[in-house]
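User: My advisor, Dr. K., asked me to get a structural model of this assembly before our group meeting. I'm new to this, so sorry if the format is off. These are the inputs:
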Amino acid sequence: MRAPQSRTKDGPVSARPLPPLGPTRRLKLPQQAERTLDNGLTVIAVRRPAVPLVEVRLWIPFGRAHLARGQMLAQTMLSGTETMSSVQIAAELQKIGGGLSVGLDPDRLMLSGTGLATGLDRMLEILAEVLTGASYPAEWVGVERDRLIDGIQVARSQPAHLARTALLKRIYGRHPYAVQTPDPEQVRAVRPAGLRTLHAQRVHPAGAVLALVGDVRPERALDVAEKALGGWQGDGHRGDLPPAPPLVPGPLLLVDRPGSVQSSLRLALPAVPRTHPDLAALQLANLIFGGYFSSRWVENIREDKGYTYGPHSLVEHSVAGSLLVAAAEVATEVTAPALLETSYELGRLATVPPNPEELEQARQYALGTLQLGVSTQAGLASLVSAYAGNGLRLDFLPEYAARLAGASADDVAEAAARYLAPARAVTVVLGDAERIASSLAALTPIETVPVPS
Amino acid sequence: MPTRRAKIPATRYPVERFTLDNGLRVVLAPDRSAPVIGVAVVYDVGIRSEPEGRSGFAHLFEHLMFQGSENLEKLAHFRHVQGAGGTFNGSTHLDYTDYFETLPSNALERALFLEADRMRGPRLTEENLRNQVDVVKEEIRVNVLNRPYGGFPWLALPPVMFDTFPNAHDGYGSFDDLESATVADAADFFRRYYASGNAVLSVSGDIDTAEATELIERHFGDVPARPAPARPDFAEPQLTAERRSAYTDKLAPLPAVASAWRVPDPIGDFAAYLPYVVLAEVLTDGDASRLVERLVHRDRAVTSVGGYLGFMGDPFDVRDPTALLLQSHLPPGGDVDKVLRTVDEELDRLATDGLGDGELARTQARMATHLLRETDAVLGRALRMAVLEQQRGEPELLGELPRLVGEVTDEQVRAAAAALRPECRASVEVIPGGAR
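Assistant: The format is fine. Below is the predicted structure of the whole assembly, which you can bring to the meeting.
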């Protein structure tokens, strides 16, 4: 190593200055086109031709669906149609370098995939075949039922999943967001007929949004989508969600996981939706707190104290409400000290305005990562789809960038005081209660529950 | 009915290569389609090079490269990258260690400055070392010790398959070894392996080649010249008898099994190696693949099966010895022996009867999509090209891969399947511990 002191024979070394940044490049939106088909399906096509692929995202509103049936529908939607078996669907997609997968959350059913751009027509034909003709064959449903149950069992052995489950339940009470993983018994009761009924009720073009992003000509891609999916019909139940309830702080919920060598710390704080005027300032406050590596929280509990590996805090947007969640896996013996530092950093930001340098650093990060996020087909597709699912379009991106650029130090301090105050936090800790309960109880009232079995 | 074959598109990224006087190799891949850049520095040292008694040291040292350098205090690196709107990370692999940033393109010079500064020398202090030992222990707890199937199979299978320390040991390291690491060890590791002649710098994305070249000269030109150390031979003989091992994972609710077979040298005999990459996908890519169809859907013997090349899933950035891996998760009470027997049966069937009509072509088309998708991100391109330069002197191979994969023949895939014999297989089984 050549540390400066080893260079004394050359005399003192003048420090090399950090090069300045060049002029900022403006955020340029890609070419795009949109059409709402007669059946109510909105199609958005965006051109990014960097590689000869196309990304497909179909968002179907799916709020308030029966959880186990919904999960099983996602698991078995590609299991066959009147004319194609599951294997044929997969093979036909592979031929064009394509693939599809189906996912569910409390807001939407999402069909997503990627394929060679030359295969877009065929990929959408197969997508249409599934949307209009998924047949939920009994044998496949049986196989997938067992696989889903096994998957739930594995998820339940993972601390991150258990902590998340406890947090959601604690926050949402009776709201549909409260439980997002079904019980195995409920899954076991799902029958093919129930899936066909759910499909008929909910897999509709009305209110759905298809995003096509990649090496496509947007107008032509819309034509292709209209040809393939114009015949998809159906309307009806939309499953609008009630607004998420406000956070109700209370005692720290300690979920006892005997033998755990780490504790999973989760703090939920209030947040606002994408279009809310406070969001930019809140995002900046969150970054300064724990939203990126160069944040107070990470510098404190990781780089100074070595309590944890990857602490992070994030504003999560769902259709019925937004939330700020801070998460860290910390060594069992430092669980209470880590919580103390977390409350300290939240409290400091909520009561003392951030200094201008750390605000500018957070602002540059927020603006830069917006550019990075839309610099790939997949990133662009995810953003277009998430925006559209919340009623927004890509032109909101520069508007949001302007809000980030314009948020003042006062705005950020105000947002921090309003949203990051530790007194407003809902806190869940999953860990070995025998080893951590008494020290946690020294900081705050706690309520201990066993890990759900 | 013969199937129409999807045309596999060619991609040709322009690539510039040069070597500075101090031996640093440079790869530039301009692409101005978005105002972002990827910057990667790859050092030719990884898990296989760490000495006995110092398991986990290559990874621990990677952490130390972020703890300040000649002109940068602790925390400065993170702040300068993120304060420029960028993201960063590093990762430790079997044969190399990478450091990288994705940034808006106006931060090019800053990124070069940051990488050059730590190439001249990180600040290695006792305090930073102790802090990062603690952080790495938490990383190991979160990724291995506190979760089910932690380290399966990438840490569990090498000690079954290999006999020598470089290939067999735990790359995350034992807590004892991590705790006994010293600043002197780190200084020695840096001097030996983090030499300008042992590194590749790669920049992709929104750059002007001439300007980037000049900036690279300016910032890296006076990094002291040190030659690459001689690379030891990590070769081990092929297995001559089947190896089996099992361990109880007290957090795991269900059984699992992973098997590995040695494959040809990915660098020295790429043409012989490539069919195995294709074979793994023929066996496990999606519902139309052989093992998913048979094991998941027909026999219901597994809940999932996956196949890939390299213990870290790194088909094109690993040297010999490496392996083809198949891993399965089983339902409650699942029979591991039966799963292994069925895999053998399916390999035999493939070797004997060959592929079905269109089976190879559709698998190759899907592989092309995966390969292209990885290179859409500027960072993916910079990283892959840096490693291809380091290990093969051939960064432009990245653009050729979809075509080369597409040229693998039915006969080659059959031969690869025939080579995966049970007697040269190493397997490790996870016995569920039941407790949660």
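One thing worth pointing out at the meeting: Chain A has 16 helices and twelve strands.

User: Perfect, thanks a lot.
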